[in-house]
Please model this.
Amino acid sequence: MVTFIIRRVIQMVIVLLGATFVLFACLFVLPGDPIASLAGSERARDPAVAAELRQRYNLDDPLLVQYGAFVWNFAHGDLGEDYAQRRPVNEILGPKVVNSAKLAGVAILIDVALGIFAGIIAAVLRYSFWDVFITLLTTIAIGFPVFVIGLLLQQTFALQFGVLPLFGMNDGIKSYILPATTIALVDAALVARLMRGTLLEVLRADYVRTAIAKGLPRRTVLSRHAMRNAVIPVLTYLGISFGGFLSGALITEAIFNWDGIGLALVVAIQQQNNPIIVGIVAYSVVIFVVINLIVDLAYAALDPRIRLS
Amino acid sequence: MTQLVGQELATGTTAPTTPTDEEQRRAGQWRDIWHLFTRNRLAIVGLVLVAVLFLTAALAPLLTSYDPYDQDLTNTLAPPSGDHLLGTDPLGRDQLSRIVFGSRIAVIVGLASILLSTVIGVIFGAMAGYLGRGWDTVIMRVADVFFAFPLLIGAIVIILMLGRGVLPVILSLAIFSWATVARLLRSSILSTREADYVMAARALGGTGWRLVTRHILPNSFAPVLVFATFNVGVAVVAEASLSFLGVGVKADVPEWGNMIAVGRGYVGTSDYLWLFPSIAVVLTVLGFVFVGDGLRDALDPKLR
Amino acid sequence: MQRRLRGTAIAASLAVLATVAAACGGDGGGEPPGEAGRAGGTFRLGIVEPTAIDPYNSQESEGGLVTKQLFVGLTGVNDAAELVPGVAKEWTANADCSEWRFTLTPDTKFSNGETVTADSFITGMTRAGKKSAASDVAYHMAGIAGFDKLQDGSAQTFSGLSAPDPNTLVVTLSAPDCEFDKKTSHTVMSPVPSAAGEATNAGFNEMPVGNGPFKMAEPWQHNKSITLVRNDQHSFGMTKLDRVELTILNPNNAAELEYQGFQAGQFDWARMPPEQLPAAKARYEPMGQWLHEDTNGMNYLLPITEDGEMASKEARLAVSYAIDRQAIIDGVFKGFQTKSTTIVPPVFKEAYQQGLCTSCDKPDPTLAKDLAQQAGLPPGTNVRLAFNTGGGHELWTQAVKAQLEETLGWRVDYAGEPFDEMLEEQRQPKAHGLYRFAWGADYPTPDNYLFPLLATASINKDDGGTVNGDNRGRYSNPRFDQLINQERASQDDAERVRVIKEAEKLALDDMALIPLWNRSQYRLFNAQQFTGGGLDFNEYPPLATISLK
Model:
């Protein structure tokens, strides 16, 4: 088991290096000079100042040198400095990461609650009205792009009914509801379908039929035998989803003015603010990969078949 | 969505015995699959939607009376009327024509990106799954690198590099989707490899290419097919999202994401601008999702 | 040149400012303050995250908004685009405008009690001009002697600045400039207290201490808010508001958020997304909360005149005659723009020559086709039209494209690019075609339109042929340069205006820039609770004079 973990960690590091290098290479060949214009305005920068900044940020060094410096600094937790505000990227992104994480946390709760609950009902009450209703609803939900859902929710609950804040993070718990729901809704539909699918599969299994034949009450069978096995793939899926949420829900954050890293990325891309882009994408990649690792390990731990193989 | 398909699908199969029997059985299998598929009402609906989409894309010029690029500055932002069934956009262009022509982009981008990612993914996944060991590790690590990027973010970076347009969008979506296909096929192959019937075929003297194409691939392919079908829907939404963020196809191309992005500024005043393209996106995605669902149920041998 | 304005003129100017602001407030917005206004109140608005609020690097409009509330410079600008006294109550130049002498109002204070002296200005300007500051706005001081040494690091003091006594600032220029006083209205030349330290002093960057009508209540809460409170040490008039709360919004849809915030009662001042202007006007104009102003700015198409398809005057005129500006304004902007017939905007009342560009007034397809033929650009020619994405220019540029294609039969190579990329493209030796372009003056003078954009000296090519100056269209006309130099050397206001007008006419006859429409700005102002709303020269709300009703 230990060798398994070590091997996976090494793989993770390789993947991180690969991904960040690809990112660096892509940004390196971007047309346009990120130092050329004043941030947020349409004026060209004074050439002397531009030269000074190029020097300060080592922008004239070759790709490999810049990448090497980046990796070295990254290993020390330093993501460099933002070109526009001249502040450390860590300082700028730190609070945003926290904000995205908070939103992701609430979103995953909604995801779990809605998704698992709906999935169980659909499976247990198979072929009933509820099953059809939920199946249909979840299938349709998949077709809705995030921005449509976000706009609809905003229009209805914030502008029309006025019960929830329109945007921003200043209203305490209430601020979280609309954006978190927007993020979680489509995923909850997928979770519900998955839950339903795995539960149905498990309920057909021999050992469950045996348990029922033995006379165990339905509820016990469900909770003790069926759910435990059915929920494993769902949990791994939720883990991956959480990783996705943490990486910043770009569109949702933009619509609701949520100061998280997804929004920061959209803005940084428009302004071609490379240190921020690199910082955020590197962070997203790290999160994704780390969570994948955790999920893999958890799956191995939970599924005795893998553990014992 | 990818995990969903991977987990939900069972990959056990029945074992053919002799070549001629196998061909007969395969014909029978397809007929069975078709029967199962058509029994599913939602799948039929999906098929109809997809068919409508393709027909609209193919016959677009015949279905519209206006050129989607034709501006009419004297008649901008006109609500739906007899003249313009779905209204006009801020440049006076007919919305209905733009939605109809938008189906072309959806079809092209959706199909092309998924086709590309599937081909790449199948090649690499098959190599990893069948050739094993060294190849497997290298390919899977490369796949992991691409897998590490969330789809939208990765696509945006590629598009920044290549500029806006249909081709960069297709490429960027394909680049960040193939990894899942490869992974899927690989795990599918890994389980089929150890199956009894394959060992039997090998024992009978079947080797290499024939083994792969005749026995392993067809039986491992099902999850990939289902995933690809779902993924067309994902691609259409991703492409609309990219345009919504301003990094998709060029701004004047009639395309649903572009139209929704423009319409977003008019929420509450000219809702028809974003509502109809949104419906188009939703219906298109649903079509593929229903078909994918039906396909998965039909291909699942446990239900047969 | 003599400009003498008495100390009492400061109060008078503020009153003028306020009244003009009220008058410019447009259709019924705000009554003159001071009569109805009372002290107190919190004014709330939204901005996007500034690059900097410390005057050493404050550069774009949102940074400038905050900095202007925190600092008063030597001079200021009123709504009529005229220079008015700031800390300096009067100023003079020597005979050839190579040396300027500013007399400061004595005993004015920073918010921390320190007295503002000529040295405070020297400190502020030196710290911004140093090489280590790498300030993006230091170039406004480039005309002052000793600037280059400061910028390349060989000097640590600004040799062109001196303070013979605490209330006199003497500025020696490296080249004569009869409009140098106008430059002193820029925030980079703000005075700073001794506690400011170097430009890299993060404490001061986050919470600058100044002599303006407001002071920071707390350090800058990045991406969340900036809060200002009234500065009771302010020596230039009585600020009525207690507090100003600036909520920082994401730039992606800031206008939308401001507008929604205003509707929800969260903001007292807001921009609106262009699509919502008709609805907003219908709703808020009857309530007296609607503000409209054509401000310091202009929208053009920038032709690359050195090479390529736009190198000939005929080609550019063809474009101008082919574009139906009014149709675009009516159709795309729903009437919320005003077509432009000049290079210099109407805000400069004396220099403004309405109707100067005849091709801008009405389109003429036949003449346009003729001119295109003469220019050697028959139907089927490839012509490039590029614009920067993320600025909301997609729609109207498509309209221009369609008009050019329809009228002239050209094949328009239509490209939207991120701003940096477009800028880079314009600077390259091989640039060609048309670019969407806009400009606003840094100082209240029409010279700041004509010189940076059209003078040969503003091209500034390096060895590789890359353009480093602001004249990226590479317009070069010796007669124009002659006129500009004549204007710059003149100490007579009337003469200067006359020559500027002649230069502008010359440039427009050559169609060096293709004017499109003025810079029309619209705002919403909470006139139910407040009075004194309007847009000042920089398009900011006049926070120093706004008050509760």
